[in-house]
Amino acid sequence: MSTATSAVESAPHHDEAEERGIFAWVATVDHKKIGILYLFTALFFFAVGGLEALVIRIQLARPNSAVVSPEAFNQLFTMHGTTMIFLVVMPTLVGFGNYFVPLMIGARDMAFPRMNALSYWLFPFGGFLLHFSLMAGGAPSAGWFSYAPLSETAYSSSPGTDYWILAILVLGIGSVATAINMIATILTLRVSGLTIRRLPLFVWMTLVTSILVILALPVLNAAVVMLLIDRQLEAHFFTAVGGGNATLWQHFFWTFGHPEVYIMALPAFGMISEIIPVFSRKPIFGYEFIAGSTVAIAILSFGVWAHHMFAAGLGHTADLAFAGGSMLIGIPTGVKIFNWIATMWGGQIRFTTSMMFATAFLLEFVIGGLSGIQFAAAPIDWQVTDTYYVVAHFHYVLFGGTAFALMAATYYWFPKMSGRMLSERLGKAHFWLMVIGFNLTFFVQHFLGLAGMPRRVFTYPDLPGWGTLNLLSTVGAFVMGIAVLVFVANIVISMRRGKPAGDNPWDAWTLEWATTSPPIAHNFHEVPPVTSRRPLWDLANPEAKDHGGAARAEKESTFTKGAVCMWSFIASEGGFFLILIISYVFFNAAQSKGGPTAATVLDLKKTGMFTACLLASSGTLWVAERALDKGNRSAAAGWLVATLALGGVFMTGQSLEYLGLFRDGVTLTSNLFATTFFTLTGFHGLHVTVGLIALAIALALSFAKNFETRRAGLLRTIGLYWHFVDVVWIVVFIVVYVRAK
Amino acid sequence: MLGDPFDTHSPEARAIAGLFDQTLIVCGAIMLVVTGLVVVCIVRFRAKPGAKDPPQSHGNTRLEIAWTIAPFLILCWLFWLTVKTVMASDPPPDRDADLVVIAHQWWWEARYRTGAVTANEIHIPVGRKLLVEIRSADVIHDFWVPQLARKIDATPGRSVFIWLEADAAGTYLGACAEYCGTQHAWMRIMVVAEPEAEFVAWETHEREPATPPTTDAAARGARLFAEMTCVKCHGIATGEPSDATLPRVAPDLTHIARRKTLAAGRLDNNHANLAAWLKDPQALKQGSHMPSLQLTDAKVDDLAAYFESLK
Lengths: 741, 311
Hints:
Low-confidence stretches of chain A: 1-17
Number of helices of chain A: 22
Distance between the termini of chain A: 54 Å
Number of strands of chain A: 0
Mean pLDDT of chain B: 95
Strand content of chain B: 15-25%
Distance between the termini of chain B: 45 Å
Low-confidence stretches of chain B: none
Helix content of chain B: 25-40%
Mean pLDDT of chain A: 92
Structural class of chain B: alpha+beta
Radius of gyration of chain B: 27 Å
Largest sheet of chain A: none
Shape of chain A: globular
Structural class of chain A: mainly alpha
Largest sheet of chain B: 5 strands, mixed
Radius of gyration of chain A: 27 Å
Order of helices and strands of chain B: HHEEEEEEEEEEHHHEEHHH
Oligomer: heterodimer
Helix content of chain A: over 70%
Number of helices of chain B: 8
Strand content of chain A: under 5%
C-alpha cells in the first residue's frame, strides 16, 4: 500500500531534532509520547477516583456513620463515577491505542498528529473543568448519569452540574477527535500487506470502538447541551414544569450510555485477544468470529438502551423488546469467551503476570456478564437494579473486566514502551492482592443488593447482616488500595532499574515487537513483510508460515485520510443533529398548549427563498471544485466567492428571521416549540458559520501558489462538510417549516 | 432449593424470586463450565520448560456454530421465562387505584381512595391486593419494597401503577431506590400488612380528624403549631371544611403519634427522638426541607406533647 510510505514523508519531522525536557512532552505530536501522556494522566486520575472510592467505603463501613456529610458523599460518588469512566478508563484505552495502533500497523504516526495532540490536551482540560467545580461552590452531586430533573437548577442549584456538563462536552469533543483520528489511521496508514483480515485484534476492536465513539458521544453532547440550555437559559427540555420530559433525558443518556459500556469493554477485549495467544503460544482461535462478534455487539449496543430504564415503568411491550435485545448481546460475548479459552486449550501457557491478569479477567468478566444476563430479564432488574447488586455487576464488568485487562496490557506492553521489564515478583504480589481485594470488595455487594440496600445511599440502618457485609467490602477496598500502591511502585522502580527488555521479550508476533524497545522516533527502520496475521512468526518459522488471513486477496484501500476524517466527522455531526431533530419532533408532535407554534410564527415562503440560496451554494461549490480539478484557478476562486455570498445571504436571512421572532416576543424560553426551534436552527446556523469561515480560508489559500496540487484535497474536504450542512438544512426545512403548513 | 433471595411475601414478588433462582442455576452452571475449562488450561496446558510450540490451530467452524447456537437456545428459554414472569409479577391495572403514593424529597405521602392520609408507613390488608398509583412531586424517586413487589420509578409528570399485597401479616421494609438528592438514604418505606379487620379499623381511624388536646402542654403545643410556620407545610385535619386545602408539602400529622418512625425511617417515634427532631432536624437529617426553628426547650416539650396526643 503506497499510503504507508507517503505517511512517512508527510508526517511532521519534529522529533528528528529530539527536543529535551518538559517542552518535549508539552509540544510533542509524536503518538508514542502522547500515548504515554494519556496513560500517566489517567493514572493520576485513577488515584483521585480511587481515593474517592476509599472515602465512600470508609463512610459505608458501619451503619449510621457520619465520616462525611450526605452532600459530600453524593459529590464523592458522582465524581468517582465520572472520573473513572471519562478520565480513567476511556483515556487509558486511548493511551494504549495511541501508542500501539500505529506500531501494530507499521505506520509512522497517527493520521493527524497535531489533532492527536489537541485531543490529548482536551483531556486534562476537561478534568480540570470538572474539578474546578470544587472551587466554585461544590462538585456536581447528581450522579454520573445526572438524571433530570434532579440535575436541573431547581434541585441542583450550585454550579457543580454546569462544570460537569462543560467537562463532558470538552472530553466528548476530544474523544470524537481521537476516534476520527484512529479510524483514519487504521483505514489509510496500514503497511503494505496488512489487510483488514490480518489486522491485530486490538486494532480491530479499536476501529470498532472508534466507530461507536463517533456515533454515541454526539448523542451525549447534544443531551448535555440541552441540559445546559435548561440550566442557564431557563428552558424546559427535561422538567415536567413547562411541558418538558424527564424520561427523555434517560432515553438520550442511555442511547449514549449503553454503547459507552462497549466503548470501555471492546478495546479491553482486543488486549486480551493479543495477550492470550502470545502466552499460550498459539494463534488466536476463531479470529473471524471474534472480529465478527465485535461488530455484532457494536450494532446491538445501539438497540438496547432502555434496559437501563426497566424500573421507569415504560410498559411491558417496551420492557420485553429491550429484554430480548439485551439477552442477544450475551451470544457474541459468549463467543469471545469460548474462543479465548479455545486459544489457551492445547497451548503451552506461560503464566506471566500479564497472563495471570488476563486469566482473572476471563473469570471475573464472565461473572459480570452472567449477572448482566440476569439484568436483561426485566423482572429481575425490577428487583435488583439501583441496588448494590448492580454496583457489583458493573464493577465486575468494568474493574474485574476492563481494569484487569488494562493491567494485563500494562505488564505486556510496558517493556516495549520503556525498554525495561516490570518486576514479575512485585507483579505477582500486585496480582494476588488485586484479585483478593477486588473480589472481596465486590462479591459481597451482590448479597447487599439482594438484602435490599439501594445504591448511592450515604448511610444505612443497622439491619441484620448489613454492617458485616459492608465492613468486608471496605476491607477489600483497602486491599485493592495496597495492590495499586504495589503496582505504582513496580512502575516507578522498573522504569529505572527493570531488566532490559530487548525488542521482543515475549516472543510475540505482531509488528510493534519488530522495532526497538522503546521504539525509535520514526517507529521502524524497516517494517518486515506482512503476509499473514503474525508477521514475526513468519520470520521465525519460514518453513511453517502462518496462513491466518491469507485465504483471499483483498482490494487495497483507496481512501484518503482527509476523506475518511470528514466522513467520520459527518457521521458524528449527523448523530448530533439527529438528537436535536428528534427533540424538535418529540415536543412538537402534539398540539401545543398555547404560545407560538411553527404554523403561527414561521414564514415558509421567505425561509424557502433563503433555503434556495443555501442549496444553490452547494452547486456553486461543486462547480468550484470541478474548476480547480481542471486547473482553472481564477474560475474556482470566482465560484468560491459566489458560494460565500450565497451562504452569507442564508445567514442574513436567518438573522432577520430571528430578529422578527424576538420582536414578536418569541424567545428561547417562550415554550418548547421556541426552545427546540432555536436550538435546532441555531446549531445549524453555527455550522453554516463555521463552514463559511472554512470556505473563506480556502479562498484566501487559493491565491497562494500551487494551490491546485497542494490544496485540492482541502477544498474537497471542506466541500463535503458544506454539502452535509446543506443536507441537514433540507431535513430541518422539511421537519420545521414544510410540515407546519 | 436456593432459598428465597428476597424473603418474599407476595405472589408477585415470589414470581420474580423464582425467576432469579432459575437464572442463578443456569448462570451458575455456565460459570462452572467456564471455570472448569480455565482450570484445566491452567493445570494441563501450563508451559513445560523447553517445550516446543504447540500445534497452531486457527479455529473450528463447527465449534463456533455450537457455541453460538447453544447460548441462543438457552436465551430463548430464558426469554420465555421472562415473559411469563413479567405477566405474573406485574399484572396490568384493571381499576382505579386504591392508594396513591406521592414521592417527595425525602418522604412518602400516601392517600387512600377512602380518604385516609398518611406518610412513610403504608398499611395494607393481608390477602387483598391494593392497586397503588405512584407519582412524584419533584424529582425521580423509586418505590421499592423488595419482599412484596417490583420497584418502580416515581417520575414527575407521569403516573405508574403496581400491585401491593402480602400473604402474611408483618412489617416490610423498603426504600427509595432511585437517587433523589441529599437525603436519598433516609427516604425509607414501611409497609404494615395486617388482618382485614385491623386494617379496616386503622383506615377508619386515619380518616377521623385529630383529637383535640386534653392537657395544658398539648394545648400550648397546638397553639404553637398554628402560630408558627409549621402549618405552611404540615396538615392536621380538624374536621372543618378547611381540611380540603391542607398543605401537602410535608407529612400530614393528623395521626403522627400512631406511626412507628419519624422523618421517613430516620428515627424511632418516641419522646426523646421527637424532641430531638423538633429541636434540630438539620442535625439529624441534614438537607431536609424541615428547617431548624431554634425552639426553646419549653416550646419543644409543648409541641412534642401535642404531637404525642395525635393518636
